[in-house]
Design a protein that fits this description.
The chain is mostly beta strands. The protein has one domain. Helix content is about 0%, strand content about 45%.
Length: about 40
Amino acid sequence: MNEPRFATAFSIDNARAYGLNRDLSVAVTDRAMKALVLTMKP
């Protein structure tokens, strides 16, 4: 799959954002700190 893909989701309390990366890993961002806190690899 070489098509661009983009997905974003937010936690129920809106504290974290989850973003899909090109390599299908998921980046977890703490919205209060405005910082990447975790990357989950497939």
